[in-house]
Amino acid sequence: MKPLPLPVRLAAGLAVTAVEQARKLPQQLVGLPVTVVSEALQLSMRVQQRVTELAIKGDDALSVLRPVEQEPEWATFDEDEEPEPTDPPDDGDDPWSEEERALAAERPGVLPNYDELSLPQLRARLRTLRVDELESLLAYERSHAGRPEFTGMLSRRIANLRAES
């Protein structure tokens, strides 16, 4: 016996599937409200997730145009204020005192608290420094922390002062 043509077989398959689905319909109607609510919540979560992904991609793209500052210029903290002078502690029992003195001797004399300064704090102090002082800070930065944003800012300030001369 020769098989029936494909369109006829497809139509018969669709008819059987429709009858099966019609028989399941009463059982599915009971759970339909829960299913609809569940699918709506899933759709809402997918939309929120997509929006968040797009915002993150946008932030990444825009971060190239606008570098983030370490601390805002207007922010001040208790550590930024100069401490009141006190009597030096007795270093006789402190094993770290010799190392601290050696590190203090390495620090640039121009800004003794240079290592504690944030980028905006250093920027605020640069206008008062001469080229030779800036060069010593740059050499110190390169030999110690080597932070690109600090070395770049110091290099640009030195170049600007030389161009003004």
UniProtKB/TrEMBL annotation:
Transmembrane segments: none
Ranges for region Disordered: 67-114
Biased composition regions of type Acidic residues, renumbered to the chain: 70-97
DUF8129 domain ranges (all copies): 119-163
Pfam families, sorted: DUF8129 (PF26450)
Protein name (database record): DUF8129 domain-containing protein
Organism: Saccharothrix violaceirubra
